[in-house]
Amino acid sequence: MPPNAEDAVTVLGGGAVGLCTALDLAGHGIPVRLIDRDAPGQGASSGNAGVISPFSVVPQAMPGVWRKAPGWLLDPLGPVAVRARHLPRFLPWALRFLRNGTAGRARQVSAAMEGLTSGNIELYRRHLQGTGHEDLVRDSCYVLAHRDPRLASDTGLDAELRRAAGARVEVIGADALHEMEPALSADFRAAVVIHGQSRATSPGRLMSVLAGKLRGLGGEILCREVKALRPAPEGGWRIYCTGEDLHAPRVVVAAGAWSARLLEPLGLRLPLEAERGYHVMFPAPGIALNNSVMDANRKFVASSMEDGLRAAGTAEFAGLDAPPDPRRARTIAKIAKRMLPDLDDTGLTTWSGVRPSFPDSLPVIGEIPGHRGLYGAFGHSHYGLMMAPRTGTIMADLLRGSAPNLDLSPYRADRFGSV
What we know:
CATH class of the domain at 9-46 and 205-269 and 360-416: Alpha Beta
Helix content: 25-40%
Radius of gyration: 21 Å
Order of helices and strands: EHEEHEHHHEHEHEHEEEEEHEEEEHEEEH
CATH architecture of the domain at 9-46 and 205-269 and 360-416: 3-Layer(bba) Sandwich
């Protein structure tokens, strides 16, 4: 990348959001450099359940979540865990989270989420076109499987939000469910089926293919750890990396859970939590799922992939620097065996990574107020894979000086107060 090109952009963070942003910029002929300490897309973007849903528009904070949270926390097999040492730092975030759990606020947030998920399947297919790897995104349904048929409803607020986004939502009984997914335990007796979804058959390889396309478009990819970001005396930004310092006229911070730490020395105080997730990979499962399937009670998702069957889930709040807890992965393996009785767990492997989560389920997108040439594209929580392509097009529009066809005020960095 020409180091002094006035329109050049450096993207900090090579996850799905950073890659899609860099791809869109390069596609418009803008010199772009992407920096990540690891191979692009091989962090949290590779470890998810692979769901690509235009209708993932249900916020984490929903009415009644405050009643369920204590039971989740007390259940050793529950979907949420908070380490005691992190509790004092977590509580202010949790209170903000709970304040978002009203019906009116959920509808507002959902509309903003739809602005980032709509068209995501088509956008991924556009990115994959001509790569020879178009089969990495496959059509499927999202099956929310329930043990208690009374809980499988298409009349609640979550179904309302999905339908408002254009989803076809259907409730099916035990017979139809087990015809759709024969490997499921007979304990599951109903499901809510969301049609019109897709799934990535290998999220990690999908990211690698996108990185290869970026290089083919002339994008530069550097494997560096970014230590600090400062305004440069000559204008633009100075990026302090391990081994060298770099200059950039414009910078997009897309560093996921590490973004707030990178921005804090600039005076920005953002309520971004590092929410650790886990997955278990079963390389020779002996069974297959035809769709992405959620155990609606335990809040984890299983999906068949190129290299086996993946079960992913849990939300563990422990701080950015806390090591993984192997017990959480073992919990997922145990639940997966209950969900899929004939699952062969020989040779299973585990993984963990951190999601960047704001208390309102929305990311920061756009120029950081008071910091010219500095942009944010981070905080996508559980929805990073799904929101990445649209975030990329929005960021490319902004950096090209073209107004996106979307109200960006819900994603402003200063929505939490002065930054």
